[in-house]
């Protein structure tokens, strides 16, 4: 990992900073590539991490793609296809890590920034947090998985309405729709998101992976098949070191030490 904006700390939190104050906190292509390579290393076991924190290093989480670079590209189609492919590769590896993902959504999350928020398991914002699809405003269509994920969060009809009319969602609206998980004071967004990521990092890896997998796959399974998957998963986890530690700690009325049994 070449940048201090992308790193794993002693708590097992992999911080991925995807925008900076430069260029109006637009999505930084270089950081996207670094995040992709880092997540791929996690998948391959070359880097050890227990949770992921998505953040921006400016006043906004991410204000979307760098439209000025779109306009100056010699071949806009080729340029945008490359950007989309790189972002989508990073998102694919994010899912493949099977790690819990927390987003610190301060300020604006627009365009690809809003797409990234939708891929977090938990998204924490503040009263000043705002979201906007932004794509129709420049005559383009979504990327970053927005048109796949948003319908799963708010429903297809509402997703079409939000994207096609380029709705600006304030924090309360995003919370009520389930896009944000919690609203805290604006100056506490970063720390609250990090603290939660650290809490999840100290928790049971197997349980978190199973929860993410079960929830994601529930949309394409019948109830009967899903109940079978739940039964197999809980039985399998019960004999893992973390499963044994969790039950034993509960019976002994002590806090489980999941890191100690990894």
Summarize the structure.
This protein has 262 residues and is an alpha/beta fold. It contains eleven helices and nine strands. The protein has two domains: 6-201, Alpha-Beta Complex (2-enoyl-CoA Hydratase, Chain A, domain 1), CATH 3.90.226; 205-261, Lyase 2-enoyl-coa Hydratase, Chain  A, domain 2, CATH 1.10.12.
Unreliable segments of 5+ consecutive residues: none
What's the SSE pattern? EEHEHHEEHEEHHEHEHHHH
Task: Give the total of domains.
Answer: 2
CATH fold title of the largest domain:
2-enoyl-CoA Hydratase, Chain A, domain 1
Helical residues, percent: 40-55%
Distance between the termini: 24 Å
- Largest sheet data: 6 strands, mixed
CATH architecture of the largest domain: Alpha-Beta Complex
Strand order of the largest sheet: 1-2-3-4-6-9
Which geometry do the CA atoms define?
globular
CATH superfamily of the largest domain: 2-enoyl-CoA Hydratase, Chain A, domain 1
Count every beta strand, where a strand is a DSSP E run of 2 or more residues. Answer: 9
- Relative strand content: 5-15%
The average pLDDT score comes to: 96
State the secondary-structure class. alpha/beta
CATH class annotation of the largest domain: Alpha Beta
Radius of gyration: 19 Å
The number of distinct helices, counting runs of at least 4 residues, comes to 11
Protein name: Enoyl-CoA hydratase
Organism: Gordonia phthalatica
Pfam families: ECH_1
GO molecular function: catalytic activity
